[in-house]
Design brief:
Blueprint lengths: L2 E6 L4 H12 L2 E7 L12 E3 L12 H8 L4 E4 L9 H21 L4 E5 L11 H15 L3 E5 L1 E3 L5 H10 L4 E5 L5 E2 L1 E3 H13 L8 E3 L5 E2 H11 L5 E5 L1 H13 L8 H8 L33
Parallel strand pairs: 1-2, 1-4, 2-3, 4-5, 5-6, 6-11, 7-10, 8-13
Antiparallel strand pairs: 9-12
Helix pairs in contact: 1-6, 3-4, 5-7, 8-9
């Protein structure tokens, strides 16, 4: 019997890795996407959808499509990272996610998996962490699965890790936030995909968020040095007070400038969860450690 999974964010870095993992595990993946399907696109079937309007084709259209395609799992990995104002984050990311959860339940989809973040925890100070946490609570109350990935890496990384790698490979002098001692927990994209495959397949739903990351923390300075060396760069790292960087980015955002790094990301890096509940074993996954190239490709299961 064909198993069908509807996936949001399927064209992003993390979503693409999840799509590959689900497909390899025998799932048919339907992308929930706002973009038009391009000619020659081989990424699979799509349903028009966006966080700003959970059903881009009219009232109840999404739930009807989920029913028609006999979708048995929804994996929600989309998140609009272009937004910086708290009210926009709430309106689009939180409310859009809750509408999707409502539609999935109305369509009687058996499993809903929310891709949250290790930045989501009770004392989170970043808006990113706070809004992810708000959606987590709703998903958990309705019997869904919450997965909190660490900093996702791979052979051709994107997202935050990709931005750090690009920065580490440029120039002889690289600014570093504060002391650079802020611990980062990493997860390989294939191990995250393995956790998602387990989450949509298991009959026993974890009752608390599952944090998927290798247990060894990597200080930001050490990580940046390793990324620089892997690209043949031997830069000098110059510590810059993180509040100064934060305020500069806030001013730029207030002026409407589009930068490659958000002020909220600074808070997420320096005020992160120092003691995350690293419990990937709940989904049978043992995340591998970070390596320079990140080329180990076979996900490892713990049992």
């Amino acid at each position: 019997m064909t198993r069908v999974c509807a996936l949001t964010g399927a064209h992003g870095y993390v979503g693409s890795a999840l799509r590959r993992g689900l497909t390899a595990a025998g799932w048919t993946v339907v992308s929930l996407s706002r973009r038009e399907k391009l000619s020659g696109d081989e990424t699979g079937d799509e349903i028009r959808w966006s966080l700003e309007d959970a059903s881009a084709s009219g009232p109840n259209a999404l739930r009807e499509e989920l029913r028609r395609r006999e979708v048995s799992a929804v994996v929600h990995a989309a998140w609009d990272l272009r937004l910086v104002r708290p009210r926009d984050l709430e309106r689009v990311n939180v409310q859009g996610s809750l509408r999707l959860l409502d539609e999935a339940q109305a369509a009687d989809v058996p499993r809903f998996v929310f891709i949250s973040s290790i930045s989501a925890f009770d004392e989170a100070e970043s808006y990113y962490g706070k809004t992810k946490l708000a959606v987590e609570h709703a998903v958990s109350l309705r019997g869904g699965v919450v997965i909190r990935p660490g900093l996702v890496f791979g052979e051709r990384p994107g997202g935050m890790f990709g931005a750090l790698k690009v920065q580490a490979g440029r120039g002889a002098i690289i600014p570093l936030l504060g002391t650079g001692r802020y611990a980062q927990y990493l997860v390989h994209e294939d191990d995250l995909a393995a956790a998602v495959v387990a989450a949509v397949s298991t009959e026993k739903v974890p009752q608390r968020p599952v944090t998927v990351a290798h247990p060894e923390p990597r200080p930001l300075r050490s990580l940046m040095q390793q990324l620089a060396q892997s690209q043949g760069n031997n830069p000098r790292f110059v510590s810059v007070p993180w509040p100064l960087v934060y305020q500069g980015l806030k001013l730029a955002e207030a002026a409407g400038l589009k930068l490659g790094f958000r002020s909220d990301s600074v808070i997420g890096l320096v005020r992160n969860n120092r003691h995350p509940d690293l419990n990937a074993s709940l989904l049978g996954v043992a995340p591998r450690p970070f390596t320079d190239q990140g080329r180990e490709q076979t996900p490892r299961n713990s049992g």
